[in-house]
Design a protein that fits this description.
Number of strands: 7
Structural class: mainly beta
Helix content: under 10%
Radius of gyration: 15 Å
Number of helices: 0
Order of helices and strands: EEEEEEE
Length: 107
């Protein structure tokens, strides 16, 4: 997988692994407003934070500073859509389903 065509989603963790994930909004590197830089395909990067870290303190890529970043080797299809969007059935365009949003911080 080429990381040049993917964005990154930063997930704070106490131990640099999935088992230490802190309950906070993820931080996106790119957004649909970025135009050519945007891709739904993102690389998951763990960011190691201190044990006394307060959730949602990191709100942008600038807040990452010198924190240790560990590429997880995992990728996700994480489309960014406006709040209130619905998913349309490809078989029956009259059927839609609401999208359960995952709030995230951006830049």
């Amino acid at each position: 997988v080429s990381t040049q065509s993917t964005g990154k989603v930063f997930i704070p963790t106490k131990d640099g692994t999935m088992s230490g994930i802190v309950a906070q909004k993820p931080v996106l590197e790119f957004h649909t407003a970025d135009g050519e830089s945007y891709s739904d395909f993102v690389q998951i990067v763990f960011v190691t934070v201190a044990d006394d870290y307060v959730a949602d303190t990191i709100k942008s890529t600038e807040d990452l500073g010198d924190l240790v970043q560990t590429p997880s080797g995992m990728y996700a299809n994480l489309p960014v859509v406006p709040t209130g969007s619905t998913l349309q059935s490809p078989a029956d365009k009259t059927k839609t389903a609401p999208i359960s949003p995952l709030m995230a911080f951006y830049k």
